[in-house]
């Protein structure tokens, strides 16, 4: 999990519990300075989470033409990194290094991600380390392909 997704979430106390007042301050009407900062962090992370969700949804529309499962559920996407200013880096692999449609898949990922409002540039890095294995697929993908 990358930093964009690791810190998402709620304004919990240091002990992990949630405030009963939903984050309001001691009087119940105004947040304290620390709570206001946590709220700003939640908003920023919420925006990153929303963008990540939109990117994942788009990646689920990209298919290797030889396999009836999208590249995301196949486990081909190793990392989605939101770098700010609308820049995204995606590190992914293919089911085989000699995939004859590798260029098409990479172009499709880049083109579709760059169509998302707010994305200015998408850089796709193809890697084969670690090599892809069937264990990287979602349960749904394994079921669809008859591996379960």
Secondary-structure element order, N to C: HHHEEHEH
Whole-number average pLDDT?
Answer: 78
Helix run count: 5
Q: What's the CATH first level?
A: Alpha Beta
Write down the Rg.
Answer: 19 Å
Q: What's the end-to-end separation, in Å?
A: 26 Å
Alpha-beta classification: alpha+beta
Tally of strands: 3
**Main sheet characteristics:** 3 strands, mixed
Just name the CATH architecture: 2-Layer Sandwich
Q: What's the name of the CATH homologous superfamily?
A: Fe-S cluster assembly (FSCA)
- Strand % is 5-15%
Sheet with most strands: strand arrangement? 1-2-3
Can you give a write-up of this model?
- Mean pLDDT is 78; it is low at 1-44.
- The chain has one domain (3-144): 2-Layer Sandwich (GMP Synthetase, Chain A, domain 3).
- A hairpin with a 2-residue loop joins strand 1 and strand 2 (87-92).
- It has 148 residues and is of the alpha+beta class.
- It starts with a helix and ends with a helix.
- The protein has helices at residues 3-6, 33-59, 71-74, 102-114, 139-144, and strands spanning 77-84, 87-92, 121-126.
- It is 36% helix and 14% strand.
């Amino acid at each position: 999990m990358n930093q964009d997704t690791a810190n998402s979430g709620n304004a919990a106390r240091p002990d992990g519990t949630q405030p009963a007042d939903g984050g309001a301050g001691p009087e119940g009407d105004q947040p304290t300075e620390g709570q206001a900062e946590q709220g700003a962090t939640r908003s920023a992370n919420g925006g990153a989470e929303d963008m990540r969700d939109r990117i994942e949804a788009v990646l689920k529309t990209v298919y290797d033409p030889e396999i009836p499962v999208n590249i995301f559920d196949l486990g081909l996407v190793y990392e989605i990194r939101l770098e700010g200013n609308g820049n995204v880096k995606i590190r992914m692999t293919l089911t085989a290094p000699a995939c004859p449609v590798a260029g098409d898949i990479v172009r499709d990922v880049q083109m579709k991600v760059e169509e998302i409002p707010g994305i200015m540039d998408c850089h796709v890095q193809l890697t084969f380390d670690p090599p892809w294995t069937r264990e990287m697929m979602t349960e749904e993908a394994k079921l669809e392909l008859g591996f379960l």
